[in-house]
C-alpha cells in the first residue's frame, strides 16, 4: 500500500504529484492492468512469442539502416 504524509507547507497538488510518482514507481498500476483479465498460459506464450518476433525485426531494421541498406 502506497502512502504519503503531508509535509509542512506542502500544497495538495504537490502531495498528489508525489503520490502519483510513488504509485508509478511501485508498479501497482501496471500489475493491475496486467491482471485485469485472465490469460491462459498458452495465450501468454503466444503473446510473448509475437513480442519477441516484433522486437527482433525492429532490431534487424535498426542494424540494416546503420549499414546503409
Structural commentary:
The protein is mainly α. It contains three helices and no strands.
**What percent of residues are in strands?**
under 5%
What would you call the quaternary organization? Answer: single chain
Helical coverage, percent range: over 70%
Rounded to the nearest angstrom, the radius of gyration is 21 Å
**What's the story with the biggest beta sheet?**
none
Strands, total number: 0
Short structural description:
This protein is mainly alpha-helical and 69 residues long. Helix content is 71%, strand content 0%. The longest helix is centred in the C-terminal third of the chain and has 27 residues, at 41-67.
List the helices and strands and how they pair.
Elements: H1 12-26, H2 28-34, H3 41-67
Features:
69 residues; mainly alpha; 3 helices
Amino acid at each position: 500500500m502506497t502512502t504519503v504524509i503531508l509535509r509542512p507547507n506542502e500544497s495538495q497538488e504537490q502531495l498528489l504529484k508525489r503520490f502519483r510518482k510513488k504509485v508509478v514507481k511501485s508498479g501497482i498500476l501496471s500489475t493491475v492492468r496486467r491482471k485485469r483479465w485472465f490469460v491462459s498460459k498458452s495465450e501468454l506464450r503466444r503473446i510473448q512469442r509475437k513480442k519477441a518476433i516484433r522486437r527482433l525485426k525492429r532490431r534487424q531494421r535498426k542494424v540494416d539502416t546503420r549499414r546503409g541498406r
